Amino acid sequence: MSSGTDKGKGKSGKRRLSTRLTHAARDRKLTQGGVNPVVQRASTVIVESAAKLFEPGGWTYGRHGTATHEALRQCLSEIEGAEHCVLLPSGLMACIVPFLAHAEAGGHVLVSDTVYGPTRRFVDRMLSRWGCEATYFAPGIGAGMEKLMQPNTKLVFVESPGSMTFEIEDAPAIARVAAAHGAVSVMDNTWAGGVFHKPLDLGFDLSVQANTKYVSGGADILNGAIHLNDDKLLARLKDTVADIGSNVSSDDAFTILRGARSLQLRMERHQVSALHVALWLEKHAKVKRVLHPALDSDPNHGLWKRDFTGSSGLFSIVLEPMPTAKVHAFLDALKFFGLGFSYGGFESLAIHCDPQLKRTTYTPDLGGPLIRLSVGLEDPEDLVDDLEQALEAI
Fold this sequence. Notes:
Number of strands: 12
Distance between the termini: 52 Å
CATH topology of the largest domain: Aspartate Aminotransferase, domain 2
CATH class of the largest domain: Alpha Beta
Mean pLDDT: 93
Number of helices: 12
Low-confidence stretches: 1-10
Strand content: 5-15%
């Protein structure tokens, strides 16, 4: 955890997140006097004595991390409020390592039907090859998950809000059911950036973050992390990461850490701007629905308000029914919104979701084409103007 001073404490004596992130990982062993950690690149490590060559938990090879990685882990732990952090080279790797660590032949996993597409692809293609059964569950199942648990259920994986359609899960209820059956519970927490949602506090065992998105903020690097408080789970995850030879470069770790310093402030800007744009879109004649859990009109607003302290810049809209050619005309007319995957960077993005929208347990009754918007750091009025002229194009 942070080794900073007590500066920035409020009357309650607890430092606010923006201060903690600014001062996290400031141990001179990591920074050598600078405000940033050193970029320590290493494959071979020279140990002090022969007895330390095989010392359990010792730093004996570059894949185990360097001072740069330790600094990033400390900072990310501050964000999620976690005791431990495991670094991975991408957000997808952070999502699938819990499966690699716990799924097994003859085992069973439960997966939210609204998870990130590549996570679903891994479950569908890889787990079946190992003889591990996967069952998808519809969003909003909550305590009803009890009916889906089996004696061999090893892991429950959830993403909240749901990918592309933004349903909110009853996280505490799901976590209680999983714990009662001895299954490991995992939450993909990328939408909230780790800032506005704390799955570990709600009872989840693991909180996954794609640092590629909001934590980095630069849209120029891939990285992921798993956050947790349990020592036994940590040991199993670390063994899994070591067994598959996964590694994060020191330069990538440094870049992610640099972005994380401003995460709190950027998330606040994303939140305000996205709500401004979403409220405007709610009133537009060519927009059928806005899927954003922080809006009063959203059916999951109550759950969001209970479990979240804020919202990010990512949400979807449903256009009035129209042919695909008109959807493309709308997207192609956008000037400030780039057409691209991912989110969380400084530039706003838009994608057409229908070609990749896949559900197993239910068919979303949207009533029109689904468009996902990532609101960046531009002036929200410019984004409104951009959307207005693009909607006029159809």
